[in-house]
From TrEMBL:
This is Aspartate carbamoyltransferase. InterPro entries: Asp/Orn_carbamoyltranf_P-bd, Asp/Orn_carbamoylTrfase, Asp/Orn_carbamoylTrfase_sf, Asp_carbamoyltransf, Asp_carbamoyltransf_Asp/Orn-bd. GO terms for molecular function: amino acid binding; aspartate carbamoyltransferase activity. Heterododecamer (2C3:3R2) of six catalytic PyrB chains organized as two trimers (C3), and six regulatory PyrI chains organized as three dimers (R2). It catalyses: carbamoyl phosphate + L-aspartate = N-carbamoyl-L-aspartate + phosphate + H(+). SUPFAM superfamilies: Aspartate/ornithine carbamoyltransferase. Its EC number is 2.1.3.2. Catalyzes the condensation of carbamoyl phosphate and aspartate to form carbamoyl aspartate and inorganic phosphate, the committed step in the de novo pyrimidine nucleotide biosynthesis pathway. L-aspartate binds at K82, R174, R230. Pathway: Pyrimidine metabolism; UMP biosynthesis via de novo pathway; (S)-dihydroorotate from bicarbonate: step 2/3. The gene is pyrB. GO terms for cellular component: cytosol. It comes from Ruania alba. GO terms for biological process: 'de novo' pyrimidine nucleobase biosynthetic process; 'de novo' UMP biosynthetic process; amino acid metabolic process. Residues 160-312 form the Aspartate/ornithine carbamoyltransferase Asp/Orn-binding domain.
Amino acid sequence: MKHLLSAGDLSKDEAVRILDTAATMSATQSREIKKLPALRGLTVVNLFFEDSTRTRISFEAAAKRLSADVINFAAKGSSVSKGESLKDTAQTLQAMGADAVVIRHQASGAPLRLATSGWIDAPVVNAGDGMHQHPTQALLDAFTMRRHLMPDEGTGMGLEGKRVVIVGDVLHSRVARSNVDLLHTLGAQVTLVAPPTLLPVGVHTWPCEVSYHLDATLTAVAPDAVMMLRVQRERMSAAGGGFFPSAAEYSRRYGLDAPRLAVLPDHCLIMHPGPMNRGLEISAQAADSANSTIVEQVSNGVAVRMAVLYLLLAGADSSTTERTSR
Ligand code: CP
């Protein structure tokens, strides 16, 4: 693995290896081990052209727990606001000795462009590009599901036979795309539920079931995990569109509320990538329920991002000597 650009690029063996490595890294989460020396002397650049709380902070924490130096770059307040291009920004980072670049960008495909342009020779990690992909989010979601749903099998496993329902604004969601790809690779059965207006063209060719009816789906599928997606009102406004269906209708037909919680199996996980619109796609009762893994997902994100950085920069597939000698 030279870069991590899309969850769809991962084979089952590669994905399981990341999850297994993250399981070993999670000891640092409980602070039993404060830091590992694995990336000492290397520099990780966090290049964020779009807002983020969880992903940016957890990549920073992950790199620091592996003893790497971290440079945080936010487009706001940088020369990007003076019109500097991605190419010139990338070459500036290369000149500063970036050993890995973590990029979030509003344009789908920006991480691929960075990885294949020849502007830099460091591994590139996609931290979310437009409506396209968010592979480390899918990995941390799978890690969380595996911990709860496959506790006896332990490492080496995917999510074989587990049933996952993903609900909401699929159209604008890089999280949904990444999760469908990865969960399918790991052997889970995925059902997407959304109003027709919030489903992308071509969704029926994805490796999952598609439904417009949440109540019927929850009853028929009896899911092991329900993942609620954020309604991305900012992308709807940017596209010049209104919010259809209306917020009230959306919440009534697609929100996870108390009556819907009551029909879920007792063990069913309640998931959300954050940030949440409480009262729209998810009620406070659901978000704060005993089965909610929403806070744990954030915490697991650090271990998963440690695993990704470790495998790209110091794993068996890459040459540590070559990178440290640059
Ligand atoms: N889940 C997620 O990507 O959150 P942030 O936008 O806060 O990074």
